[in-house]
Amino acid sequence: MSRVSIEYKNHIAHVTLTRGDKMNALDDAMIKAILAAGQEVAAADIRAVVLSGEGKGFCAGLDMASFASMAHKDPTEWLMTRSHEDANEMQELALIWRRVPVPVICAIQGVAYGGGLQIALGADIRIAHPEAKLAVMEMKWGIIPDMGGMVLLPELVRSDVLRLLTYTARPIAAPQAADWGLVTKLSDDPLTEALALAEDIAGKSPSAIRAAKRLIDVAVTRDRAQVLLAESSEQVDLIGKPDQMEVVMAQMQGRKPEFK
Q1: Eight-state DSSP code of residue 141
Q2: pTM for the full model?
Q3: Pairwise CA distance, residues 77 & 150, whole Å
Q4: Residues 46 and 137 occupy one common structural domain
Q5: What is the pLDDT of residues 75-109, one digit of tens each?
Q6: Residue 225's CATH number
């Protein structure tokens, strides 16, 4: 059975986790399917991605069989191998959405626990149902978040919040998650809102949107001088080019821009 589906429409890729009967829990087939989907959309001619899970929950994290199989593997071998640039396979489940060159919007309903939360954190924007619950769940199983969580979480929450979430493994409600910065906004229909936001982004200059994502990645990870230089470099590549000129002409003519 397929674990992930991809639908392309209006320059938007809608990536859906399709193991809804298991709360989209992560088994080996799901892990491979998510990585393949991320690689596919990263190479596609698109302008935005919507990431969601079918059924009652976005993703409940690793399934029990996967936990059981961990006991029979040498953790050094499969965790220390850098198979995807600076990441191992499990870390890439979250980080691949940062490598996708266009904005990724994650719609969260039900639960986003453990690995499921870390996948959602890889998105640029998270829209959650008010009744959704999120958890840095790993401590419940005697482990620590190791799917890119310690790269992504410190960008979003204060150190004390990060420590509370990690030490306790307690699920928190989406409104609290929004207050703490884990969730961008709440919606009674997160998928519909995510798709509408993707359509809005898809109507902007494709080259400027990609430049903005690259620049923001620099802004949150590099020092002042590197950020200032990146601003200038990205702008040089945009000003006077076809996409930017079309935006200007569309504004002057009171119409929507049309990009080639």
Answers
A1: G
A2: 0.94
A3: 21
A4: yes
A5: 777 788 877 888 899 999 999 999 999 999 999 99
A6: 1.10.12
